[in-house]
Design brief:
Aspartate Aminotransferase, domain 2; 7-stranded mixed β-sheet; binds ligand T4K; globular; 2 domains; Aspartate Aminotransferase, domain 1; 402 residues; 14 strands; alpha/beta
Length: 402
């Protein structure tokens, strides 16, 4: 960090000063578990000369995930996107599937990649998750399923979506990429819908470098998903499904096993950071920090702010620009919404008309750095900058001539 003090807006990097942080502060900076344990595992797997194809570390990781979540089956995968694609295919989804636009593009692409139409549905602005009433309105005779996303790790309206799926005879699955280690009414995410999919990408609080997993209670489905993730091989020289290569390798599983040993520490740090942000940003005009239901298990991996431009006099984008100039790499997830990205923007140019809340929320949200790579002092400085900025909106505009 540079040693200049941020007292007035003249001290901001956007007005020509040195950035506050010399090294960038990331959203999604990886958590890394005990290095010695990790290196020992790397050494073991090299000695064993078993590098991939459902090796012993992958099997152990799958067992431990089943135990942690209380699910019957876990199939570890090379990443969350392939895991989604395989789960979608194994469920037999086709035609149209209802999905939020307020999600990472991979959720929509996993459908479109298989020529299934993602039908974008609006969200509840309070939870940022699918609004069940809107889901009901988007169902057509071609709809085969609902793909809910537990955005920020906060569970979807699971009961309502399950009820709609049952009544309208639709398949229900969840993209739980953000929700590893979270619970809903005391039950771990992973136990809902017919299948749930996790991402263990480097930017997730629990990571396997690249990786993911599909979890389900359905034994037949699990068998099919496992076959599909290994080219459809049911034994030497015997292929019984159309499959692909979704396998997790042993290096990733070694990282996963090590990360699992440190999971509680990662969550404790995320929680501490979350509380510090909450305390230090409290009462700032025009800033709302998203909260987690503390009576549930949460991973607290995302610090999400909503900026009210009318109250701060600053657009979310200008706040992000100011933070980036300070080397605080805040992110605008999930701007501008999948429906405004290709190929969907060209396919459905007017989709936004049915997504008023998605449009608003995606213009207000910004994510702040957290995780084990961010210190308490870093957070104080980020909050100090936000305090200065959000109380100086008109002055900043005057200086920028905007
Ligand atoms: N569904 C949902 C709801 C998802 O959020 C995701 C992934 C998926 C499905 C698909 O799962 P995977 O196939 O990825 O397993 C990042 C992640 O790449 C992506 O995994 C994640 N969601 C998404 C929300 O965020 P980008 O394009 O924003 O990544 P990037 O490269 O800009 O990195 C984010 C920040 O992290 C940067 O400031 C740099 C920092 N970083 C990144 C890496 C890889 C590090 O500090 N170290 C690193 O090793 O998508």
């Amino acid at each position: 960090m540079s040693d200049h003090q941020l007292k007035t807006i003249d001290d901001l990097a956007i007005f020509g000063q040195e950035p506050t942080f010399q090294e960038p502060l990331h959203v999604g900076g990886p958590n890394i578990g005990d290095r010695a344990r990790l290196m020992a595992r790397f050494s073991d797997l090299l000695d064993r000369r078993w590098l991939t194809n459902h090796g012993p570390y992958v099997q152990e990781l799958e067992r431990q995930i089943c135990n942690l979540l209380g699910v019957k089956h876990c199939i570890a995968m090379c990443n969350g996107t392939i895991a989604l694609e395989i789960a979608i295919r194994a469920l037999g989804l086709k035609g149209e599937v209802i999905v939020p636009s307020f999600t990472f593009i991979a959720t929509a692409h996993a459908l479109q990649w298989q020529e299934i139409i993602p039908v974008f549905c609006d969200i509840d602005p309070e939870t940022h998750n699918l609004n069940p009433e809107c889901v009901e309105q988007m169902i057509t005779p071609r709809t085969t399923g609902i793909l809910g996303v537990h955005v920020w790790g906060r569970p979807c309206a699971i009961e309502e979506l399950s009820e709609i799926a049952r009544r309208r005879n639709l398949r229900l699955m969840f993209d739980a990429a953000h929700a590893f280690g979270c619970s809903h009414k005391g039950t771990m995410i992973g136990n809902f819908g017919e299948v749930e999919v996790f991402s263990f990408h480097a930017t997730k609080f629990f990571n396997t470098f690249e990786g993911g997993a599909v979890v389900t209670h359905n034994g037949d489905l699990a068998k099919k998903i496992r076959l599909m993730s290994n080219f459809g091989f049911a034994g030497y020289d015997r292929v019984i499904y159309l499959g692909t290569n979704g396998k997790m390798n042993e290096v990733s599983a070694a990282m996963g096993l090590t990360s699992l040993e440190n999971l509680d520490d990662f969550i404790a740090v995320n929680y501490r950071n979350y509380r510090q942000y909450q305390t230090e940003l409290a009462g700032l005009p025009g800033l709302r920090m998203e909260t987690y239901n503390e009576s549930e298990k949460n991973n607290y991996q995302y610090i999400v702010l909503e900026i009210d431009e009318a109250a701060t006099g600053l657009s979310r984008d200008l706040v992000v620009e100011i933070l980036h100039a300070e080397n605080i790499l805040a992110r605008r997830y999930f701007y501008p919404g999948c429906h405004r990205m290709e190929p969907y923007r060209s396919y459905f140019p007017h989709a936004g008309l049915l997504l008023p809340e998605t449009e608003k929320v995606s213009q207000r949200c910004l994510l702040l750095p957290t995780g084990t790579g961010v210190s308490s002092n870093d957070i104080s400085v980020v909050c100090q900058i936000l305090r200065l900025v959000t109380t100086s909106g008109p002055e900043i505009h005057r200086r920028l001539g905007k």
